[in-house]
Design goal:
Layout: H1 7-27, H2 29-36, E1 61-66, E2 71-76, H3 78-83
Antiparallel strand pairs: 1-2
Length: 84
């Protein structure tokens, strides 16, 4: 994979985007307010905001999965499953 042109730069940009996303969420005052909100945590402080990322190289199918109450964007493929 490393022999493909542009792969190293692509990986560097993906890592930089991940770090910027984490920093933005941890700095956001509105997110911190939600974490401290009594109503969201059910009075026990059980609510927290979190993210996870996985990087893969290969094919994937993107789509929406869920119900009428909750919909998640997801990617399906063997390489995505191994990355997670």
């Amino acid at each position: 994979l490393a022999s493909l042109p542009g792969v190293n730069a692509f990986g560097d940009r993906a890592l930089l985007g991940l770090l910027k996303s984490f920093a933005g969420i941890n700095r956001a005052k509105s997110v911190k307010l939600w974490e401290r909100d009594y109503r969201v945590g059910g009075g026990v402080g059980a609510f927290s905001v979190g993210m996870s990322f996985g990087m893969h190289a290969g094919w994937a199918v993107e789509g929406a999965v869920g119900s009428s109450y909750k919909i998640d964007a997801t990617y399906l493929s063997p390489t995505v499953n191994m990355a997670s």
